[in-house]
């Protein structure tokens, strides 16, 4: 008697078994490789699964390399590169492109470039089709003090043999910027640079800025030149302001010293006046003591008082004006 539940269980078991089988033994990938002329067995595909190497990456890469005539690329090499963390498909793409462009690139060199962190496929494309790098605005000052702001376009081609260990685009841009600054700085006037902007690119190219880099500089074109500030005049103004501030500070210092000296002289004068007043206060005591001791007679004291009165009168007369004197004489 037919049992539908049993039939369903059997169907599910068959589906699960087929799914497991086709996962560990990718039959259709094997069939695709067989049709493309790539020799690989089902056991090798099964072992790839065991080694955690995806056949969906290795087999298409083998097919691509075989179709491009790169028969020296083996399955073991691709698996080894994958297990070391490389990009297998990117390497194969690069090798195929290099082969078509007659660029000398071995599998070992391509994998080394890939493991160094560079995009080997993009490097091959750049080697075939040079790319243009736009520099950021570079500000430089000519000898006459006028600032120029320059933008350049650098056409570079990848140097396959120096991709490992060679400097990148940032170094190229830094060197080009340095060359632009030195070229403008050596110009007597900014007008000379504006008249012949190609003199900048010629001078920069002669310096061999691509040495030790992963690129070869083909050309440097000046895209734009803008006139900036008059740096020389600005520096002179800043220097004049600085000199003025220094002079003001020194003048303020001298004024403060003069004020201090004046205050010191006033203090000394006040001290001297106090000493005089104190001395004058001692005179009556000394006269009294002289009269008591007999060192001075009454007539001497009388003559002294007359002398003081006469002196005071003379001082008062010296302070009178001409009109006051005429009034007195009337």
Supply the key terms.
four-stranded antiparallel β-sheet, single chain, 4 strands, 330 residues, alpha+beta
What does the model show?
Strands 1, 2, 3 and 4 form a four-stranded antiparallel sheet that branches. Helix 2 runs parallel beside helix 4 (55-67) and helix 4 (55-67) runs parallel beside helix 6. The chain contains 14 helices and four strands. It has helices spanning 4-24, 27-36, 42-50, 55-67, 75-83, 88-100, 107-115, 120-128, 169-185, 190-195, 198-205, 231-293, 298-319, 322-329; strands at 131-134, 138-141, 146-158, 215-230. The model has no long low-confidence stretch (mean pLDDT 79). The protein is 66% helix and 11% strand. It has 330 residues and is α+β, with helices and mostly antiparallel strands.
Mean pLDDT: 79
Residue runs with pLDDT of under 50 for 5 or more positions: none
Structural class given helices, strands, pairing? alpha+beta
Could you give the order of the helices and strands? HHHHHHHHEEEHHHEHHH
Ends: how far apart? 172 Å
Quaternary state, please?
single chain
Indicate the proportion of strand residues: 5-15%
Radius of gyration: 52 Å
């Amino acid at each position: 008697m037919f049992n539908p539940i049993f039939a369903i269980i059997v169907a599910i078991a068959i589906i699960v078994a087929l799914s497991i089988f086709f996962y560990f033994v990718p039959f259709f990938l094997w069939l695709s490789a067989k049709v493309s002329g790539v020799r690989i067995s089902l056991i090798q595909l099964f072992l790839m699964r065991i080694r955690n190497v995806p056949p969906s990456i290795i087999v298409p890469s083998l097919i691509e390399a075989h179709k491009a005539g790169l028969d020296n690329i083996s399955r073991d090499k691709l698996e080894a590169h994958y297990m070391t963390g490389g990009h297998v498909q990117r390497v194969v793409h690069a090798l195929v492109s290099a082969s078509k462009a007659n660029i000398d690139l071995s599998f070992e060199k391509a994998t080394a470039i890939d493991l160094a962190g560079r995009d080997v496929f993009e490097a091959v494309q750049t080697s075939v089709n040079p790319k243009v790098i736009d520099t950021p605005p570079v500000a430089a000052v000519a000898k006459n003090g006028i600032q120029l702001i320059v933008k350049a376009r650098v056409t570079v081609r990848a140097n396959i043999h120096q991709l490992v260990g060679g400097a990148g685009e940032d170094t190229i841009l830094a060197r080009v910027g340095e060359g632009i600054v030195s070229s403008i700085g050596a110009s007597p006037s900014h007008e000379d640079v504006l008249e012949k902007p190609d003199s900048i690119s010629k001078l920069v190219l002669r310096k061999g800025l691509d040495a030790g880099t992963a690129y070869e500089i083909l050309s440097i074109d000046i895209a734009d030149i803008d006139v900036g500030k008059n740096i020389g005049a600005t520096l002179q103004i800043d220097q004049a302001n600085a000199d003025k501030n220094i002079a003001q500070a020194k003048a303020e210092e001298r004024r403060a010293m003069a004020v201090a000296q004046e205050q010191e002289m006033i203090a000394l004068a006040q001290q001297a006046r106090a000493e005089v007043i104190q001395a004058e206060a001692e005179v009556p005591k000394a006269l009294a003591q002289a009269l008591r001791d007999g060192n001075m007679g009454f007539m001497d004291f009388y003559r002294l008082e007359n002398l003081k009165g006469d002196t005071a009168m003379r001082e008062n007369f010296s302070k009178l004006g001409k009109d006051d004197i005429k009034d007195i004489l009337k």
